[in-house]
Amino acid sequence: MVRQTETSAADFLPKRHTLKDLRTAAQWCEGCDLYEKATQTVFGEGPRDASLIILGEQPGDMEDRQGHPFVGPAGRLLDRALAEAKIPREEVYITNAVKHFRWIQRGKRRLHQKPAVRQITACKPWLEAELEVIQPKVLVCLGASAAQSVLGRVVSIGRERGKFLAGKPGPVVFVTVHPSSIFRRREEADRKEEYRHFVADLRKVRHKLAAS
Prior knowledge:
By secondary structure, the protein is an alpha/beta fold. The chain has a single domain, classed as 3-Layer(aba) Sandwich (Uracil-DNA Glycosylase, subunit E). About 40% of the residues lie in helices and about 15% in strands. It contains eight helices and seven strands. It has a five-stranded mixed beta sheet. Strands 3-4 form a two-stranded antiparallel ribbon. The longest helix is centred in the last third of the chain and has 24 residues, at about 190-210.
């Protein structure tokens, strides 16, 4: 049985909201039960004055081990797509809706599990604090869980992909797929087509930033 908790990340936020203080405080977060199995908290990284935040779902296996967001296969694909879309990676702040890795053991492998709604909700104060400090112009949500954490409702990627949505309050929100979903396509032709679509989405974001 999963242990229930009434706490959230709000109980662990520091008094002063700077990226350094938030990152340090997040290492001790026990706002939901995910900290129990995770190696460490994986906080966001990037410049304090970033105009663009890219938001994923949660850290993966490599991120959990290394302590940095998007350093695994999905991260490398994201880096490649950003380069093709002419968005400098060093100018982007990248983080996740959930800061701990949720997984189950299968033999020697640790397999990703989608975070529960209560875990996304418990972790949201960290994201809200990041947005408060950085105040980006655009927030790109990679996948349905990331979009749900921001918009507070169930999001259909099929219906809302490629749209710019008004934040309440906050930056303009843009919804697209998570890079890991591209790897899950069985056919190489499908993977290539989905990757091209992903790059096209990021180009829309670049044009939006340039116009703002």
